[in-house]
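User: quick one
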Amino acid sequence: MIDFSQLDKVIHEKGRLAIMSLLAARPEWRFQDLKTELSMSDGNLVTHLRTLHKAGYVSLTKEHDGRPQTSYALTDRGREAFLGYVAVLESIVLKHKPS
Amino acid sequence: MIDFSQLDKVIHEKGRLAIMSLLAARPEWRFQDLKTELSMSDGNLVTHLRTLHKAGYVSLTKEHDGRPQTSYALTDRGREAFLGYVAVLESIVLKHKPS
DNA sequence: TACGTAACTTTGCGCCACAAAGCTTCACCG
DNA sequence: CGGTGAAGCTTTGTGGCGCAAAGTTACGTA
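Assistant: Done. Structure below.
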């Protein structure tokens, strides 16, 4: 049986799942690029990133080259949690995918 | 890119995802069995099932052999929606699964 | 000095998951 | 018959959360 209680509640939300997927695919993302890519309001995006940060899943670095510029990245714990989440997805897919 | 907006909001919730997974794996489930399997309060379970029913994803048949007894099953539309959902999961898995 | 932009924070709204408790219908038992 | 218990469902209440819009702060530029 699949253990759905293992589905990390922090990751199992469309917006944050999309963020985690982007962060997992590239080592670093600037806030503006995330915002553009996700078509998300800045307030909403910041809130999701804060939730992920509080969970220890993402780190942030603030710079001031000209305009202020904040970059986000997955922590080791974040990557681990994401891979664990993906593993649950995989078990669902394997069970139900036709063919 | 993965289109997260395609993640069906009705299915993308732990409880209902678990229900859909069970219904997809066996043609018919009695209410009591679902409740036992999912360790969910009956009120909560009924609410989720109603949501799925309103979406046209599950059908229900009421019988009265001895005790009242309601059975639930996936509709064609429900199966289609679930497979579509699983397809999105698969794209996530394929993109991020190590190896 | 006025303006614009990045990155937040605050506020407010509406929805929803969840549990607990109540209701209704029926079968069984004295 | 009247009581008991179980199945299924509704109601009520609470807390949390996604989301947008507007306000805030800091800084760099015209």
